[in-house]
Amino acid sequence: MIKLDNIFAGYGDKMVLHNINVAIDISKITVIMGPNGCGKTTLLKTIMGLITPKSGTIKFNDIPISPSPQNWIKHSVFMIGQGGRVFPKMSVRENIEIATHFWNNRNEFEKRLDEVLEHFPDLRDRLSDNAGNLSGGQQQMVALARGLINKPKLLLLDEPSIVLSPKLIKDTFEKIYNINKKSGTGFVIVEHNLKTLLPLTHNAIIIESGRIVYDDPSDGKTLNIMINKIF
Question: What's the pTM value of the predicted model, to 2 decimals?
């Protein structure tokens, strides 16, 4: 469980998040939604330690943590930025392997890579290709594979559906659902494409003007009312 208590955060003197109190089950799929500019990405970055909160505490399994990407690695929590960016001039293999730079046992990579590619079989024949030559959907798969190579307990995703076609959006979200179901990896996903994603999630968080206005199961009776009101 990741718990945020009384979090205020922003950029410089501009406060974006106001008194955020939320508990995130790291074994589930949670979607974070809200209007443009409401603070969704800021919340992800604050959790990950890319933005330092002005006040408040963040806890992992009830233990206060000083969030940073380096500290979250110890707890198997990772983030994939907006659109699942890749290094275009590096091969697909190198794009995935770069996430394992801190591993002590390098011999484990091939075994783990084979496990990850079970989720993304289309990448097997593209491992030596430059990632920049792949389609948008394939690049998103590379980004997810890079996130999964470390056997994460939780992955934070920032708008993974950007630049994807409707079919690829559906395929991507179904892969995320199946990964959660098979391996137990949790996901926190900032997303605007709710029609496709929402039925596959367990919990939903709605942010409006930097404040949480909904934090309940995705099938909650009031969720559709809130969505119709805000969007």
Answer: 0.92
